[in-house]
Design brief:
This protein is mainly α and about 70 residues long. The chain contains 4 helices and no strands. Helix 2 crosses helix 3. It is globular, with a radius of gyration of 14 Å.
């Protein structure tokens, strides 16, 4: 179990990696996604190769275009 300072450090690291709204909106505009879907795409882009699970065709096309693997 991490100590209090370790846990705070991990949380701080996560906060520093949060997307800016401009990045999410750029993905939304570029791929014709909702901001909601674009935020999931942005999260997948930031997870170092983690796959994205979706049944949404537009989001799946955008993920493929961005090089994000899809969960089969």
């Amino acid at each position: 179990m991490p100590s209090g300072s370790e846990a705070r450090g991990r949380l701080w690291g996560a906060r520093k990696r949060q997307p800016g709204s401009s990045r999410v909106m750029a993905l939304a505009r570029g791929h014709r996604l909702t901001a909601y879907d674009a935020s999931y795409l942005d999260l997948a882009l930031r997870t170092d190769g983690g796959p994205l699970a979706t049944l949404d065709r537009t989001l799946a096309r955008a993920a493929t275009a961005e090089g994000v693997p899809l969960l089969a």
